[in-house]
């Protein structure tokens, strides 16, 4: 059962969907190459796994939400809208609470009822489907996943940048003991422990990969020790005459190796935050 105030649609599981067009699967494989490149995974054999078929009739919608990780190694969602005559039903994607992208799946060009259209967004991106006001919207939803046998990405970072980073490492002094790179996306413990730094999305896995390659060029005494750190801050408040006063707060850090191995939970660490 679903709350129709949150989501209103009909859906079919993958085993209830049969695609007879022999070119469809070939087309999805080619599309996965484009998707991988656009998401920052150029050359990585991403896998598009059918999650469900959805049908939105008049009044159909899905309020703002984030996708859950439906498959191991899932990094994004691919929505393929099949030719279907309808009005409304735009996909809107948010960043930091603000609407950043809108996709109308060909309505402005008048091709909605004649051609398939697609959109891709990271799994953790907040997004919503606006209300279908007329007709029916038919879509196939795929989970875009890293290959199951890939725990880390094989890369070819820019050599000049790698050398510059290595030089910067050599210039670091004792005062540069701890610094961090903030990640813009959300990650679950399952994705980190399962894929290690291969789970990083977009530009962030490129940056970490460059740091790893630069680390190989410096001496043992200058090598960085790199980890994932999951920082949590919990606070409770109570009402005093209409004003909120802090009752208690707790901070904790869980550390992971770049391989994804969970190391230890700790409290109290000072970070110098970097965000290029």
TrEMBL record:
Its lineage opens with: Eukaryota, Sar, Stramenopiles, Oomycota, Peronosporomycetes
Which terms are listed as keywords in the entry?
A: Iron, Metal-binding, Oxidoreductase
Family listed: Belongs to the iron/ascorbate-dependent oxidoreductase family.
The molecular function terms of the Gene Ontology recorded here are: metal ion binding; oxidoreductase activity
- Which source organism does the UniProt entry give? Phytophthora nicotianae P10297
Q: What is this protein called?
A: Fe2OG dioxygenase domain-containing protein
Q: Which residues form the Fe2OG dioxygenase domain?
A: 44-146
Matching entries from Pfam families are given as: 2OG-FeII_Oxy_3 (PF13640)
Domain of life assignment: Eukaryota
Q: What InterPro entries is this protein classified in?
A: Oxoglu/Fe-dep_dioxygenase_dom, Pro_4_hyd_alph_FE2OG_OXY
